[in-house]
Amino acid sequence: xxxxxxxxxxALSIGITGHTNPDGDCIGTTLALWQFLxxxxxxxxxxxxxxxxxxxxDFIQGxxxxxxxxxxxxxxxxxxxxxxxxxxxxxxxxxxxxxxxxLNIDHHISNPGCGDAYYVDPKASSxxxxxxxxxxxxxxxLDLIDKELAQTIYVGIIHxxxxxxxSNTSPKTLRIVADLISYGFxxxxxxxxxFYERTYIQSQIxxxxxxxxxxxxxxxxxxxxxDRKTMDFYGAEKKDLSGIVNELRNIKGVEVxxxxxxxxxxxxxxxxxxxxxxxxxxxxxxxxxxxxxxxAGCNMxxxxxxxxxxxxEQIVLQMEQNGQDE
Length: 326
Ligand code: AMP
Ligand code: MN
Ligand code: MN
Hints:
By secondary structure, the chain is an alpha/beta fold. It is built from 13 helices and 11 strands. The strands form 2 sheets. Strands 6-7-8-9-11-10 form a 6-stranded mixed beta sheet, with helices on both faces. A hairpin with a 4-residue loop joins strand 6 and strand 7. The protein is globular and about 60 Å long. The mean pLDDT is 96. It binds adenosine monophosphate and manganese (II) ion (2 copies).
């Protein structure tokens, strides 16, 4: 296991980052690590460099200090990439490349581990769970957890485990969560406001995407796409689309849900979720993306229909291998 204190020994500046389009796990883990390192190494400059998080996370301590642009070409002694590989860090990649030392903390099965030292646990529900493990590995680190830090780790865990509902939730996840909620933060409010609440725009665009979804492979696959024109019509941004793929997966009989949105001319972002036997990480990796067995994504170029056909080919291949192609 990676020892955060040891790896950062002698460092006077530490940068923390995660993937572009940061989700709750990425936001929770980067800020929890920030809060932890500020306590562990008070002599150190500690920064989070990340794309601007969605406003429902505004209550998290440190969120107002995130560096959201690339204006300061600072060279950090240690740069820590969480919930991602360095290649997916967007504007923060310039900091990653310049840093004197690179650490990587993740739970993506598609990440073999990067940098000078890394800890990747594909069995963990979230990068936040991995971070908790690293903190819990030493009593002196564990003693630094307070209500604020517990809450921030908790945010990461609930977002990637669907509030401890997805199959990545283990008995260990629940034990960690039990420890975390014992710090006494208002967890029902947190779940409501960061996980379930939708703005009117988000609800509208989700409704539209579900309305236009079409079944493939006899209903085992549900596909929907939102183009730029539709996003502009509703005034929706990419962060407003994150709940759609789960809605598609909830439809009875669906094994694989595919949600696609246009990011540029002939350029699409693909989100995939599966229910029980298709490994969507494998499909995503085939097209240059990554993720987990039940939740993965990638970016693809070309015509929308060609993209859907190419994805179907990989899914059918797996169904044949699994004997589920009847
Ligand atoms: P999403 O569908 O964007 O919510 O992503 C589902 C999961 O796959 C998340 O754990 C993402 O971090 C991961 N993922 C999505 N897109 C990519 C990508 N292009 N490369 C690697 N991992 C990805
Ligand atoms: Mn993530
Ligand atoms: Mn994650």
